[in-house]
Amino acid sequence: MDIDPRTPTTKNPPELFTGDVWLDPIAAPRTEGQRMTVAMVRFAPGARTAWHSHALGQTLRVTQGVAWMQSRGGDRVELHAGQTAYCPPGVEHWHGAAPDSFMEHLAMLDNADDPATTTTWLEHVTDEEYRAV
Questions:
Q1: pTM of the entire structure?
Q2: Residues 6+ apart with CB under 8 A from 109
Q3: Potential cystine with 43: which of 4, 37, 72, 97 (Cβ 3.0-4.6 Å)?
């Protein structure tokens, strides 16, 4: 068994996120054939990702607060602590905190064969898109 040293919390870059968002890595591939990546991500009220997609999909488990999520062309959904959402491969989406609540989720995904293509980042979610029902 390996016990990992604590890694520092990092603030996510404004090129990919609106508002204050912090990340704590939890798991990453260790040996040949492993792909799983897991991180704890914390969003300040109103903070959110840019539009993006994942080559092999993504699972999000809300652990605290109120999350807003939306797939491109779909309705925005609200999730609460204890709920899990899955976004299939290649589906453009965003996720973040409701405007009046901090939110924390576990982000779980598998790396693509080329890890650089695991996540495709797109444009920022506008305030109008964020507020739309």
A1: 0.93
A2: 36, 37, 54, 56, 57, 58, 59, 118, 119
A3: 97
Contacts of 83 (CB under 8 A, 6+ apart): 61, 62, 67
**Distance from C-alpha of 83 to C-alpha of 21, rounded to nearest angstrom:** 20
Contacts of 72 (CB under 8 A, 6+ apart): 51, 91, 92, 93
Query: Which of 49, 34, 30, 43 has its CA nearest to residue 103?
Result: 43
pLDDT digits 0-9 by tens, 78-110 = 999 999 999 999 999 999 999 999 999 999 999
DSSP character for 92? -
Q: Which fold has domain 10-131?
A: Jelly Rolls (2.60.120)
What DSSP character marks residue 12?
P
Domain boundaries of the chain, sorted by first residue: 10-131
